[in-house]
């Protein structure tokens, strides 16, 4: 007898798939690459929130399999980074050992999902055979001038004791530990991602990505048009160059502000003002850039000097204030309080002049502004430009400035170069040797990898040097160019380094000659479908695009975008908060798999809500899914030996079901796929009651449809219904729209043009029979009159004319 026993069935098929994999390469199969964002193997293991994305990508992979593809669905470990290192510090366990243990545990837990991962292609970013290529890319970037050293004030996390990239600072806090980020002046390795700003922006157009993510990236790149304008300084040789997106407001500039770090601050501050200026500069150096921009209350100091407005000769007091950032535009601005909110606040606070130069209507002048007027309008108080539309005047004023050599048209990007060095142990050593004579020299490519040595103390030094600096025998080396004594770079790479190109390595993991061979890259890349959380919108996803473009430029790959289609799954929440160990609201999959089975949990992960949205987890919900699976099982088992002949109704349901499931699946509306299965199982059950079962073909199709979602039960039922090979060897069912049509329709019957009754007729029913039904339906509404004419247009009109 056949009872649904998830434990037996799931174990049986897992063993079976190990022996006879379902995803096999043959010459004629097209290739499909479905990728999960690889996990950081943390010590706390997987919870049901992690399952969501992995189930989703596995359903997609198995769907592609059934569509006839050979699918690459790999898994690996993004294993460098702070948590392993912090664990080493508190527990004294080497990060490599802790990482290996965590990977083992993660892998065991991942296997519970029964995803078709190709474990032969597993990668680990901390494996020297892997990071050899991470270092190789750095060396190539160095040789192309894209990796460079710079002493600069960078974001510094006082708790992690390391520098951070701008992308890692979220609302002024360290993306990892939540501490307030400060500034520190340090020698840094930088990657020139800004050289790719324009391409990173325009190529977004080609991508089948959520609009939200594209917008986040384009906002982060932050392209704006405007002008750079030179201002003379009264009684001083220096000129101040500003960047403005609003040259049309130039007549309304009433003061200037320099960033406290601006190189002219010292030269411009008058003797009277020097002391307060220096004091302010020092205080500003301690604040992070996010705080500086978000601080409500404006602060600043007058330098004592004046600039000259190049258009009207007005004297503009020059101030310094930390709301102007040193590393954006030119680090100096012309201030137009009438039309810029920040300048307005500043002018109000320090009682500076406000001159309106754009008005909604031409006569709407000389009223005191309550707030900055930031919209388009008509130019006023602007000499020859008066009366023009401001948006037109922008162009006209730029032209004027260019003609008189006071300014130039410019484009600016918010994107900054990437601060790439970390003062920590557990990362890829930056493959550079410092030589007194030759400067920074890259380690020769054939000598890579530069292996991470063992240290005794992982403790970050806090001095801005990494713990590697203390290992003399490692640090001291010879210069690859001149052979003299030299020192190794002791900074390591950020965790993003290994994840910026890993998707390329999966397709050719064992290649020790190249990062990836041309043939393999051509066969598999770029990634067809990429599944992961939205939190990576401007970090990993931007870096990966940058790396790919670079590798394209140096001829390693022949495509410039890594991920064709992106799907961001929402988070699983419990009690309103994102599921995470730190929130104490974690649900482990282990017990659920034990009680209900992997298939039920897979279905419930998808049923819990629209996959792109955050969804609230409710343990009780899986019970309903489990009952559905049992109904589904019984439907098939009860019908399988009945040899029921297909009725029209069964066929219609079958085609409709295939159509709807396929459509919903293509749109990744997976929760509605699951509800669709429930709905159709009920319909088929109703029919089975009437007809004594459902026909063989319908049984086959419904098993195939559910196979990507609940693969174990599908295989078992496939076998029970007499098949000797895997259900995944069949192909995704097709539908016939003709057969989906209802075979009867409701038709209104008109009498002298007014609807008097409705009849049900078959689609193919002949004219005589239709009219016969129509006459019967109105028989008792004739009021003694008789039919003189019958009009019938099939499927459109039945009209009986009576007198
Ligand atoms: C005059 C002006 C008048 C401005 C006006 C705006 C409105 P986006 O679009 O973000 O590029 N700005 C320029 N450099 C700056 C810096 N280093 N720190 C802070 N602010 C800076 O904005 C560019 C505008 O931001 C520039 O245009 C400048 O103010 C300011 F009605 O110039 B504007
Ligand atoms: Zn040298």
Automatic annotation (TrEMBL):
<feature type="domain" description="Methionyl/Valyl/Leucyl/Isoleucyl-tRNA synthetase anticodon-binding">
    <location>
        <begin position="650"/>
        <end position="768"/>
    </location>
</feature>
<feature type="domain" description="Leucyl-tRNA synthetase editing">
    <location>
        <begin position="219"/>
        <end position="402"/>
    </location>
</feature>
<dbReference type="InterPro" id="IPR009008">
    <property type="entry name" value="Val/Leu/Ile-tRNA-synth_edit"/>
</dbReference>
<keyword id="KW-0067">ATP-binding</keyword>
<dbReference type="GO" id="GO:0006429">
    <property type="term" value="P:leucyl-tRNA aminoacylation"/>
</dbReference>
<dbReference type="GO" id="GO:0005524">
    <property type="term" value="F:ATP binding"/>
</dbReference>
<feature type="short sequence motif" description="'KMSKS' region">
    <location>
        <begin position="578"/>
        <end position="582"/>
    </location>
</feature>
<dbReference type="Pfam" id="PF08264">
    <property type="entry name" value="Anticodon_1"/>
</dbReference>
<keyword id="KW-0436">Ligase</keyword>
<dbReference type="Pfam" id="PF09334">
    <property type="entry name" value="tRNA-synt_1g"/>
</dbReference>
<dbReference type="InterPro" id="IPR014729">
    <property type="entry name" value="Rossmann-like_a/b/a_fold"/>
</dbReference>
<feature type="binding site">
    <location>
        <position position="581"/>
    </location>
    <ligand>
        <name>ATP</name>
    </ligand>
</feature>
<protein>
    <recommendedName>
        <fullName>Leucine--tRNA ligase</fullName>
        <ecNumber>6.1.1.4</ecNumber>
    </recommendedName>
</protein>
<dbReference type="Pfam" id="PF00133">
    <property type="entry name" value="tRNA-synt_1"/>
</dbReference>
<dbReference type="InterPro" id="IPR002300">
    <property type="entry name" value="aa-tRNA-synth_Ia"/>
</dbReference>
<dbReference type="GO" id="GO:0002161">
    <property type="term" value="F:aminoacyl-tRNA deacylase activity"/>
</dbReference>
<keyword id="KW-0030">Aminoacyl-tRNA synthetase</keyword>
<dbReference type="InterPro" id="IPR025709">
    <property type="entry name" value="Leu_tRNA-synth_edit"/>
</dbReference>
<feature type="domain" description="Aminoacyl-tRNA synthetase class Ia">
    <location>
        <begin position="414"/>
        <end position="604"/>
    </location>
</feature>
<dbReference type="InterPro" id="IPR009080">
    <property type="entry name" value="tRNAsynth_Ia_anticodon-bd"/>
</dbReference>
<dbReference type="GO" id="GO:0004823">
    <property type="term" value="F:leucine-tRNA ligase activity"/>
</dbReference>
<keyword id="KW-0963">Cytoplasm</keyword>
<comment type="similarity">
    <text>Belongs to the class-I aminoacyl-tRNA synthetase family.</text>
</comment>
<dbReference type="InterPro" id="IPR002302">
    <property type="entry name" value="Leu-tRNA-ligase"/>
</dbReference>
<keyword id="KW-0547">Nucleotide-binding</keyword>
<feature type="domain" description="Methionyl/Leucyl tRNA synthetase">
    <location>
        <begin position="38"/>
        <end position="181"/>
    </location>
</feature>
<dbReference type="InterPro" id="IPR013155">
    <property type="entry name" value="M/V/L/I-tRNA-synth_anticd-bd"/>
</dbReference>
<keyword id="KW-0648">Protein biosynthesis</keyword>
<dbReference type="InterPro" id="IPR015413">
    <property type="entry name" value="Methionyl/Leucyl_tRNA_Synth"/>
</dbReference>
<dbReference type="GO" id="GO:0005829">
    <property type="term" value="C:cytosol"/>
</dbReference>
<dbReference type="Pfam" id="PF13603">
    <property type="entry name" value="tRNA-synt_1_2"/>
</dbReference>
């Amino acid at each position: 007898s056949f009872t649904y026993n998830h434990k037996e069935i799931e174990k049986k098929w897992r063993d079976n798939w190990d022996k006879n994999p379902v995803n096999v390469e043959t010459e004629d199969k097209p290739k499909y690459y479905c990728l999960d964002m690889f996990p950081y193997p943390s010590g706390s293991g997987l919870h049901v929130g992690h399952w969501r994305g992995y189930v989703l990508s596995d359903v997609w992979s198995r769907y592609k399999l059934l569509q006839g593809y050979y699918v690459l669905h790999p898994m690996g470990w993004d294993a460098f980074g702070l948590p392993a290192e912090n664990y080493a510090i508190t527990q004294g366990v080497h990060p490599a050992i802790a990482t290996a243990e965590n990977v083992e545990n993660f892998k065991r837990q991942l296997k519970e999902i029964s995803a078709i991962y190709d474990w032969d292609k597993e990668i680990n970013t901390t494996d020297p055979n892997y990071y050899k290529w991470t270092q190789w890319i750095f060396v190539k970037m160095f040789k192309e001038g894209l990796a460079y050293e710079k002493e600069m004030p960078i974001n510094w996390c006082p708790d992690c004791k390391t520098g951070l990239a701008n992308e890692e600072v979220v609302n002024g806090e360290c993306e990892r530990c939540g501490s307030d980020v400060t500034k520190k002046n340090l020698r840094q390795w930088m990657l020139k991602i800004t050289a790719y700003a324009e391409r990173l922006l325009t190529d977004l157009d080609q991508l089948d990505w959520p609009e939200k993510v594209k917008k986040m990236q384009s906002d982060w790149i932050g392209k704006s048009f405007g002008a750079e304008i030179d201002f003379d300084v009264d009684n001083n040789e220096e000129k101040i160059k500003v960047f403005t997106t609003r040259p049309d407001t130039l007549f309304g500039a009433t003061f200037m502000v320099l960033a406290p770090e601006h190189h002219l601050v010292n030269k411009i501050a008058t003797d009277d003002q020097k002391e307060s200026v220096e004091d302010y500069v020092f205080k500003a150096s301690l604040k992070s850039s996010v705080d500086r921009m978000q601080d409500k209350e404006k602060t600043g100091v007058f330098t004592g000097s004046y600039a000259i407005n190049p258009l009207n000769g007005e004297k503009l007091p020059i101030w310094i204030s930390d709301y102007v950032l040193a590393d954006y535009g030119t680090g100096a601005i012309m201030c137009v309080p009438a039309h810029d909110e920040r300048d307005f606040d500043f002018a109000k606070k320090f009682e500076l002049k406000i001159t309106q130069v754009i008005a909604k209507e031409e006569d709407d002048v000389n009223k005191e502004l309550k707030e900055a007027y930031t919209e388009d309008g008509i130019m006023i108080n602007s000499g020859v430009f008066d009366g023009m539309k401001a948006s037109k005047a922008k162009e006209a004023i730029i032209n004027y400035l260019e003609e008189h050599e006071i300014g130039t048209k410019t484009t600016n990007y918010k994107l900054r170069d990437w601060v790439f060095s970390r003062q920590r142990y557990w990362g890829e050593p930056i493959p550079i040797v410092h030589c007194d004579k030759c400067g920074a020299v890259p380690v020769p490519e054939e000598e890579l990898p530069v292996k991470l040595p063992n240290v005794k103390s992982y403790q970050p030094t806090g001095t801005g040097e990494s713990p590697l600096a203390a290992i003399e025998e490692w640090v001291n080396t010879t210069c690859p160019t001149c052979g003299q004594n030299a020192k190794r770079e002791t900074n390591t790479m950020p965790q993003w380094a290994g994840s910026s190109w890993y998707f390329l390595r999966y397709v050719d993991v064992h290649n020790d000659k190249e990062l990836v061979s041309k043939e393999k890259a051509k066969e598999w890349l770029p990634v067809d479908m990429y599944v992961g959380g939205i939190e990576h919108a401007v970090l990993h996803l931007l870096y990966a695009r940058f790396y790919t473009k670079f590798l394209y430029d140096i001829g390693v790959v022949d495509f410039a975008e890594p991920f064709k289609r992106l799907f961001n799954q929402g988070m699983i929440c419990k009690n309103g908060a994102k599921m995470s160990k730190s929130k104490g609201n974690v649900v482990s999959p282990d017990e659920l798999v034990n009680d209900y089975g992997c298939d039920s949990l897979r279905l419930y992960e998808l049923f819990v809500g629209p996959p792109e949205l955050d969804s609230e987890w409710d343990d009780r919900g899986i019970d309903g899914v489990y009952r559905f699976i049992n109904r589904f099982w019984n439907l098939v088992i009860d019908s399988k030996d009945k040899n029921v002949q297909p009725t029209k109704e069964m066929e219609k349901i079958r085609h409709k079901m295939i159509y709807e499931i396929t459509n919903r699946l293509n749109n990744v509306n997976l929760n509605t796929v699951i509800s669709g299965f429930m709905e159709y199982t009920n319909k088929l059950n109703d029919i089975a009651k009437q007809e004594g079962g459902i026909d063989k073909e319908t049984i086959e199709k419904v098993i195939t449809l559910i196979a990507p979602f609940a693969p174990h039960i599908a295989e078992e039922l496939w076998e029970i219904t007499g098949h000797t090979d895997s259900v995944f060897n069949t192909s995704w069912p097709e539908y016939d729209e003709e057969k989906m049509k209802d075979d009867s329709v409701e038709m209104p019957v008109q009498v002298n043009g007014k609807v008097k009754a409705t009849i049900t007729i078959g689609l193919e029913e002949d004219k005589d029979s239709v009219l016969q039904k129509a006459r019967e339906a109105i028989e008792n509404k004739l009021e003694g009159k008789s039919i003189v004419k019958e009009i019938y247009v099939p499927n459109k009109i039945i009209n009986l004319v009576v007198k």
